[in-house]
Structures are given as C-alpha cells and as structure tokens.
Design a protein that fits this description.
By secondary structure, the protein is of the alpha/beta class. It has one domain: 3-Layer(aba) Sandwich (Glutaredoxin). It is 22% helix and 24% strand.
Length: 205
Amino acid sequence: MDLLKSSNNYSLILFIITFFLPACSTEKIILFDKNSTKKDFCSLLDSPKKNDVAVVLFTSVDCPIANRMSPEIRKCQNLASDLNIKFINIYPSTNTKQKEISSHKKNYLLKGTFLHDSDQKWASLFNATITPECFVLIEKNQRWEVLYQGRVCNLYPALGRPLNKASTHELYDSIKLAKEKPDITKNMYPQNTKAVGCQIELIKK
C-alpha cells in the first residue's frame, strides 16, 4: 500500500491498494492487529473502479457524542447502502472487545463493514484522532482521494455545546454529491470540517 500525505491537517490523502483479496463480510467483526498481514484479511478498500465511492467512519462503543449521532449515522449508512457504496465502521480502541463491537452494532442498528483496529494502523493511515470522524473517498485516476473529512453533522458544533437538532448534514450531503457528480474533485468541494467528539487514545510507540 502506498500512502501519500501532505502537511496540511485537512489536505488530500491519496493511496493505492496494490493487492486484491476476497470481499469483506458485513456480518463479521474484522480484527486488524499487529500480527495482521495481507493474506490474513480481506481488503477493506480494493483498488477503486471508475467512479467508485466509499465511506470510512472512525467511531467507538462508548463515546457519547458518537452514540448520540447514531440516528444521523444510520441515515448515512442507509443512503450508502441504497447507492451501493461501501461504508466501513472502524473502532480504533486497543481496549475494546469484539463482543462490545457486536453489541454496539446491534444496539444502535448500524450497518456496513465493521473493523476492530486494535493496533491503530488504520487510524494512523487516515491520521484520525477523534471519534466520530468520517472520510468520503472518491476514485480519481484509479486511486482513492478524500473528498470530505470531518464531522458527521453539526449536532455538536463544539464540546459541551450540543444542538437540539443538527442543521447541517455534511456526511450525508458529501455521499450524495460524490455519487451524483462523479466528475467532482477535491478542489471543487473544499468543505472539510473539524470533527468534534472523543479523543482517540493513541498507542505510544
């Protein structure tokens, strides 16, 4: 896997998946740890086909902000499902157990592919630091490009300052736009936002 990042906090992340593995099951919680290899796991993000779109959401089982946003997240997951877009839920906690992710998925009626990023390789890849934080990926020249990065919606404009109801729906709108306008580029949609939520406790290395 080749990863290209710029120094800008909200800049593009471009990468190519250079190997192909079987499609992921949406029923199984996929464990990705320090012993994981390309042969051990199905590819979460195969090399994209023309006009492909994918969504990556970093979340956690015990973040109250992420859990309060679950109706909005479900709405986005339903849209992704209707549009045949892969929606990947990533849990980057080292302490979370597989059964807790399964219960979280069931209790909040979540959909998509579920990954336990116990060694935080995917959090590092995306430079994710907050849950919930989302990324909408689009295909450009057979590579994945980040069209949108940031919050799910503005239900929490800032910590400790929740709204009664979200008035902007950045993730939903980005998914819809990416599918409706396949020729869109990041330069045409400079709408990254700052994710507000629970800090990811990163592994000290």
